Amino acid sequence: MDNLTIENEDIDELTSLILSDYGDKRVIDQMDVFELPNRKKIEKITDELFEIIYPGYYTERSERSLKIYNLRHTLGALVEDIVYNLRKQIAVALCLRPDVSGISQKDKECGCLKRTAESDGKCTQKAKEITSEFVRTIPGIRQKLEMDIDAFYEGDPAAENKSEIICSYPGLRAITVYRLAHELHKLGVPIIPRTMTEYAHARTGIDIHPGAQIGDYFFIDHGTGVVIGETTLIGNHVKIYQGVTLGGLSTQGGQSLKGVKRHPTIEDNVIIYSGASVLGGETVIGHDSVIGGNAFVTKSVEPNSKVNVKNK
């Protein structure tokens, strides 16, 4: 065991070696932790938002049931906590918006968050406005999620009841986080929406970019391996299974493709079975179509079509 003893000199040498690699001009060397949104706090905010979206299902702040006489107090404390922490995280994230913080486009691209007293004031004020606007969208988000739950229940005969879906279905968890993150994305918040959806991705295996536009009554069955890209458009009453990719044909253009529609459009009442890939910004899957398992689709499909992979 003595041979495993770590000498202080070894630690000093190794520390010095790593420290010498740190710089102040590289994006991977962000030395001031207060200059970045805090991933753990964003995840905590996301979890607390679930307590508001689904009261009684995700209540971890107290073992007590939500009685009418204490509901206002409990909800008020929760909203206050979310608003306080979300404002702080958004204010930091807004340092990456040149129109708010005044940083250069070059600094934005490299992720260099440069804060000044003036930019802090602007970002803080804007964060207050955005947070208020976001919280006001929650009733509308809940209305959409209620329709999604209906789609899950009608689409899955294995579902015992809607409470089971809320408590345990990974597809609904991913969609819930997406619908919350999408509102923040629309409000122009950098970093935080993607951090939220990647938190859901890690927990469910479902990767939905917050910039995607998804209609009502959306159902992801099973879900593992589902990928929905940033510029995807999805209509109403769409159902997709595990392993489906709604992606781009190529990313070789890199940043020159930013803002270009790279992902497909899925019209109303479409079903896409497991393992299918639908790729390309000009690809449109017409309404009431069915895309079979493992299909590879890069061209538009007329409404009321069936696309299958034939066995040889």
Question: Would you kindly provide a written description of the structure presented here, covering whatever features stand out?
Answer:
There is one protein chain. It is globular and about 65 Å long. The protein has helices at about 10-20, 40-55, 70-95, 100, 105-110, 115-135, 140-155, 160-170, 170-185, 190-205, and strands at about 205-210, 215, 220, 225-230, 235, 240, 245, 265, 270, 275-280, 285, 290, 295, 305. Helices cover about 45% and strands about 10% of the residues. It has about 300 residues and is of the alpha/beta class. The protein contains ten helices and 14 strands. Strands 1-4-7-10-13 form a five-stranded parallel beta sheet. Strands 3-6-9-12-14 form a five-stranded parallel beta sheet. The protein has a four-stranded parallel beta sheet with strand order 2-5-8-11, with no helix packed on it. Helix 2 (about 40-55) runs antiparallel to helix 3, helix 3 runs antiparallel to helix 6 (about 115-135) and helix 9 runs antiparallel to helix 10. The termini are far apart.
